[in-house]
């Protein structure tokens, strides 16, 4: 195997390792558990998008399929493509569902404002995570800061989602 091919293979495995580590994060696990995507669909979508972004050229689906987690040999290209199609379809349906509920007046447009705040908090969390990921040893303060930020986001998520039950106007008035 040529040096360039070995280097590329190491880069690909490193990216896949990072994706799998990301999939283990408590915030991501909570979001995935309650989303329209299965864990496998999310992993497949991440493999597809992250590899394309990272290398800025098309990576064959056979290669992407071989990198997706399923023991050590990956999955077939057909299984990878089928899962990727399902993930994309579920995302599109999710967006249409949110728009449909807003169209029908079941969601007030202001309902999305807290999600913007949450997105900002998650962005801060990701920046902290990236900053700390390059360090070999973390101080107690850094670990505690990371943990508190993570817990804050998880708490915010639970508080944000709990009142989002669909109610009629009369039941909202009675509440």
Tags for this entry?
175 residues; mainly alpha; 2 domains
Q: Would you mind describing this structure in some detail?
A:
With 175 residues, the protein is an all-alpha fold. It folds into two domains: 1-106, no CATH class; 108-167. Helices cover 74% and strands 0% of the residues. The chain has helices at 3-23, 26-33, 39-55, 61-67, 77-103, 113-133, 140-161, 169-174. α6 (113-133) packs antiparallel against α7 (140-161). It is flat. The termini are far apart. The model has no long low-confidence stretch (mean pLDDT 83).
Walk me through the topology:
Elements lengths: L2 H21 L2 H8 L5 H17 L5 H7 L9 H27 L9 H21 L6 H22 L7 H6 L1
Helix pairs in contact: 1-3, 3-4, 3-5, 4-5, 6-7
Spans of at least 5 consecutive residues whose pLDDT stays below 50 are: none
Query: What global shape is seen?
Result: flat
For the biggest sheet, the summary is: none
Radius of gyration equals 20 Å
End-to-end CA span: 68 Å
Instruction: Write down how many β-strands occur, each being a DSSP E stretch of 2 or more residues.
Output: 0
Output the structural class.
Answer: mainly alpha
Strand content: under 5%
* Mean of residue pLDDT values: 83
* Overall tally of domains: 2
Helix content: over 70%
Compressed to H and E, one letter per element, the order equals HHHHHHHH
State the helix count.
Answer: 8
């Amino acid at each position: 195997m040529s040096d360039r091919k070995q280097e590329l293979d190491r880069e690909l495995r490193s990216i896949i390792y990072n994706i799998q580590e990301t999939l283990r994060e408590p915030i991501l696990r909570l979001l995935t558990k309650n989303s329209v995507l299965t864990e496998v669909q999310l992993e497949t979508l991440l493999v597809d998008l992250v590899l394309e972004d990272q290398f800025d050229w098309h990576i064959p689906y056979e290669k992407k399929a071989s990198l997706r987690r399923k023991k050590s040999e990956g999955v077939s290209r057909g299984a990878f493509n089928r899962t990727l199609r399902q993930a994309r379809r579920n995302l599109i349906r999710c967006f249409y569902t949110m728009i449909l509920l807003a169209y029908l007046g079941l969601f007030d447009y202001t309902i999305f404002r807290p999600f913007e705040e949450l997105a900002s908090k998650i962005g801060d969390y990701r920046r902290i995570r990236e900053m700390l990921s390059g360090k070999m040893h973390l101080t107690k303060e850094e670990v505690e800061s990371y943990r508190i930020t993570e817990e804050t986001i998880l708490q915010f998520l639970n508080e944000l989602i709990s009142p989002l039950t669909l109610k009629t106007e009369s039941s909202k008035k009675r509440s």
